[in-house]
Amino acid sequence: xxxxxxxxxxxxxxxxxxxxxxxxxxxxxxxxxxxxxxxxxxxxxxxxxxxxxxxxxxxxxxxxxxxxxxxxxxxxxxxxxxxxxxxxxxxxxxxxxxxxxxxxxxxxxxxxxxxx
Amino acid sequence: xxxxxxxxxxxxxxxxxxxxxxxxxxxxxxxxxxxxxxxxxxxxxxxxxxxxxxxxxxxxxxxxxxxxxxxxxxxxxxxxxxxxxxxxxxxxxxxxxxxxxxxxxxxxxxxxxxxxxxxx
Lengths: 116, 120
Known about the structure:
The structure holds 2 protein chains of 2 kinds.
Chain A: E1 3-5, E2 10-14, E3 19-21, E4 24-26, E5 33-39, E6 46-52, E7 60-61, E8 64-69, E9 74-79, E10 88-98, E11 101-106, E12 110-115
Chain B: E1 5-7, E2 10-13, E3 19-24, E4 31-37, E5 44-50, E6 53-57, E7 65-68, E8 75-79, E9 88-95, E10 110-111, E11 115-119
Parallel strand pairs in B: 2-11
Antiparallel strand pairs in B: 1-3, 3-8, 4-5, 4-9, 5-6, 7-8, 9-10, 9-11
């Protein structure tokens, strides 16, 4: 079974600085997808960035980028120029294939606090 | 498009009572997922629908839990004889996808704000 591990329960960063959130996963599959979702306090979860395992190039979305190391099964999220609105719980997720669908397997999350 | 809508947002019930939650997916999405999230943990998969067909259920979904998606539109999740261990956030997500799978842009799951259940 696939597992996702986020080893940092909490992180904090000063506004405008850069922070990296760690994620490792375990799978025997070769083709899969990885995601980072953001869950602000009392608000719904939104997709931050995604990575397709067969692509070697790391995904980027504005201030968010990933460092995908397939052999090491590592998928870290870097947030540049941190903003107060980045304060949230961040979940790393692995996409498991179901027949006709896709199931997400989540890590336990990392609480990120951006300080002014 | 108003996104995925879940009702109620909060539900407080006494142990042994039945509760029902509703999820309205994004209108053009054919897939609907239910997840459960306990405090300090990531969401865990419960069940999944493609159109009106329930295609997989997790072992977490005991026989006290039942989910439906009549006509492939909204979905309901019912918990019978609630227990204190059922207290959690219940999340619904929807996506558009084809049988060949894959995580194209259309397979990304969009989440609702969740229903927080407290069983006293």
